[in-house]
Amino acid sequence: MKRRKKRRSAGSPWKRASLILLVACITGLIALWLLPDGDRPGPGKTPAPKPQAAVVKAPDAAAKDPTGPEPAGKRERGGKTVAILIDDIGYDPEALRRLLAVEAPLAFSVLPHTPHARSSAEAIHRAGREVLLHLPMEPHGWPDRDPGRGALFASMTEREIRQTLLENLKSVPHARGANNHMGSKLMEERDPIRAVFRVLQEKGLYFVDSLTTEAYVGPALAAEGSLRFARRDFFIDDAVDRSRAAIHLEKLLDPRETWSELLLIGHPYPETVSALEETIPRFRAAGIRVVPLSDLVDGRQGPRGARPQRNTNRNQTS
């Protein structure tokens, strides 16, 4: 009788595979246990992803700059800057109203003891603009040329100058500075101007020299007393030919002009007011900033070597 061959179980290969899988799992657990703590992923942790190569994307020409537009101050840096001072305020409230409506930080110099001195100074202050005392001073040619009430004269003592100046300041509230009205004679006298500057320094005010004489002593005495001081560059109008204001302002818009900073003085003539209303809105497009007068004064300390401009003006004498 033949011996029947024993059949192999069909499940044997699966048993071997299961055994191999079991051994691999045990080996992996042992290897994982032997890893340092810092490299072993703990409960709730997942291994750090492998670094991938950075994908470089070509810039989209139509995409907007995420930083937004360049700040205005940065765009204007190195551009042209002007400060504009309007003298002889105190007689014409309507001219002042129109000038205060101009969207620019114009400064206004008020004549003391004039019919609308106090109300004008209050209106200027409420509008957030700078008030100055337009300080009357003795001109060459006195008494034919009369600087008006509150004027300072070379014959005055220091005490008289101080008293008169303080009375003028009471007449013009909120003054942050002063500039001379006429004064071609007084601005040549060291002792009187030293007395004036001493009072201004005590009050924390600055001084703008209208440059009505070539023999001025202002810069040296201002430096001597550490007074904030600046000199005008030119008048934008002319008492004889008032149409000059529009011509002067239009010239500032010429891109071929190479100036960088100017201190301008004008007057509330109807022609000057109209010229400012028409021209100042065009300044920004021409790269010209109108800045507060005190900002320009603070940035312009010490002599600049400028000489007075020879033009006909009620602040200018021969």
Number of helices: 10
The Rg value, from CA coordinates, equals 40 Å
Query: How many distinct beta strands?
Result: 9
CATH homolog superfamily of the domain at 78-298: Glycoside hydrolase/deacetylase
Q: What form results from the Cα inertia axes?
A: globular
Per CATH, the class of the domain at 78-298 reads Alpha Beta
Uncertain regions: pLDDT < 50 for 5+ in a row? 1-11, 31-77, 302-318
Biggest sheet overview: 9 strands, parallel
Report how far the terminal alpha carbons are from each other: 155 Å
In short:
Helix content is 33%, strand content 15%.
Structural features, described:
By secondary structure, the protein is an alpha/beta fold. Helix content is 33%, strand content 15%. The protein has helices spanning 12-33, 72-76, 93-100, 117-126, 158-171, 190-203, 218-224, 244-252, 270-279, 293-298; strands at residues 80-89, 107-110, 130-137, 175-182, 206-209, 229-231, 234-235, 261-266, 288-290. Strands 1, 2, 3, 4, 5, 6, 7, 8 and 9 form a nine-stranded parallel β-sheet that branches. The longest helix has 22 residues, at 12-33. The termini are far apart.
Characteristic key phrases:
318 residues, TIM Barrel, 10 helices, 15% strand, alpha/beta, 33% helix
Topology:
Elements: H1 12-33, H2 72-76, E1 80-89, H3 93-100, E2 107-110, H4 117-126, E3 130-137, H5 158-171, E4 175-182, H6 190-203, E5 206-209, H7 218-224, E6 229-231, E7 234-235, H8 244-252, E8 261-266, H9 270-279, E9 288-290, H10 293-298
Parallel strand pairs: 1-2, 1-8, 1-9, 2-3, 3-4, 4-5, 5-6, 7-8
Helix pairs in contact: 5-6, 8-9
